[in-house]
Amino acid sequence: MDYLHGLLQDAGPDQDLLADKLHRYRDSWIAQERWEEALSLTNVLGNYFIYVSINHKKAYEILEGYTPFILHNTDREQISFFYMTHAEAATFMQRYKESLSILDQGIAFMEKHRDSSLYEFGYAYLKAGENSDKVNEISKSVYYFEKAKKIFIHQKDTLMYLWAQNGLAQLYGKNGLYDRAWQARREVFETGTQIGEHQVVAVARLTACNEANQQGDFQEELHQIRMALKERNQEADVQGIVDILTLSYAVSVYARNGIRDTSDLYKKELISKIGPHVNNPFLETYYQLAMSQNALANDQLVEAENYAQRVLDGVQGTLEAENIMRSEFLLATIYERMNDLQGSLEHFKNYSRMKDSVNNVTSRRKFAFMQAELEAEKKDMEIAQQRKDIKILDASNKEKTYWLVFGGILLLGGSGFLWLFRNRRFAKKEKELTEKYSQDLLRQQERERSHIAWELHDGIGQQLTIMSKKARDADQKELLQLSQDTLEEVRMLGKGLLPPALANLGTTGAIEQLVHTFDEKYSMIFTLEMDGIEGCFSKEQNVNLYRFVQEAMTNLVKHSHATEVLIQIVRRANGVKLFIKDNGIGFNYEENYKGHGLGLKTMEQRIRMMGGTIHIRSENKRGTIINANIPITDA
């Protein structure tokens, strides 16, 4: 591969002719079933047409054409490279869902072999994070970015770590979490500059510029574009793409802010450099937006209209909501300047509808993300009281049993058989009543948790929000910080009491989010294999199932000392099976259950409340296995 890459690089003006010849060789080797050679050539050609020739359509066609044959290959490194190059080509073609599907295949392949030395291992998670953001899956995007960062830290690849960090910052900013975005991006600015990786710093500056524009902070927007322009002159492996993107932003920003001379200056440079990138749909969109914005600033209205309409035609039907809104707003402004009020109104309505839709989606995504994150940060606050109540109940039951036995002996005397018979019946009835009481106690606690959580949100939470606004308006910084910190604590308290992920994500999504959160927070490797179980259980049963998994994982991280945990949730025709296994130190189940194993008793009680059965098997130094079977009810 290195030799062929070098051959293409040194071919000069004959590069495309040589690439076509290698393409024919590739097809010939496929026909001869020379799979390893064919795959190597496919990867070389895909890489060439993506990054050198900038012909993404051609790259996609070559890589897509090899998809039916990839199963014949055995070279793990080449297979991993193929998945990544194929996904990259689909991404540049703005086929984000298709790219995610390819990435999932690649991730599954690399996870199976667990070769963390592969560069593609972390890069697959990075691209999956970027594309999950494109299709509005914020929680998955955060998970993918954090996973990528872990792998890049392990590989000691600082540059790729910064790209993942920048992706996370962009995700936060896109969803209105500007403080978090700035915190994440600050590390990119500082570390990227220190190690001389200017291209990642430039892209981070551009996203900061974009966020400043969204917030109406035009001074910050100008500052960030100036800083980005300083970074673009440095040498870097993707500098050509970064250069075009930075110049496009500069032309637009300066034109939009009425600084026409500077916009015109960068426009000339942009036109001189866009030639090799005309087949790049991503860069072409930003180039045409820049040209339209510049033409508008210079009263060249027909030219501005043509460029803006080309952008709109290109992004319609894609997931690029931001660029659709930009082109609609541009056209509304252009038509207004042309005195075409009907056309201006039509495009402005389109812009307003999409903006409202995006704002609503952003608000929902932000709220769902915050809920899911805070849900995992604190364990149930009343668990200690619950355990105390169960202890008191056990002690009370024992005392009752002693007195009844003693009284029975006095009254019945020698009627031992009758006493034994009645005592066994009573013990059985007492056990049933105790179990019912415990179940009623759990139900009441969930109702109280829900009530308290909503009271905190609707009462104290709203009052604190008003207080924060007033403190901000009065410029009382200390009071503002105090009120915001208190509001954050109230929110965390509320999330600990009520699992909102169930309402927002459904049972399947809530459990997936819970496992992802544990995987990110702790050093254990959590593997989840889960069927969709929506509609299997009632609302109360879904809460019990969620709490059961939460309690099991909390016990694992506190006591097991495991390094790997497998969680399987399998949907069958008449029931759902749960299987949780770890490779930890294990424990003596009988001692823990009879002694201080109140967490185990609560877990068992929750399964029984759902009409299910549970079996826990654990051995010292051999780990623990939890098996539960729950019948599907008419939810």
Automatic annotation (TrEMBL):
CDD domains: HATPase_UhpB-NarQ-NarX-like (cd16917). Signal peptide: none annotated. The chain crosses the membrane at residues 401-421. GO terms for molecular function: kinase activity. It catalyses: ATP + protein L-histidine = ADP + protein N-phospho-L-histidine. Keywords: Kinase, Membrane, Transferase, Transmembrane, Transmembrane helix, Two-component regulatory system. Residues 545-634 form the Histidine kinase domain. The keyword Kinase applies. Its EC number is 2.7.13.3. This is histidine kinase. The keyword Translocase does not apply. Coiled coil: none annotated. The lineage of its organism: Bacteria, Pseudomonadati, Bacteroidota, Flavobacteriia, Flavobacteriales. It is an enzyme of class 2 (transferase).
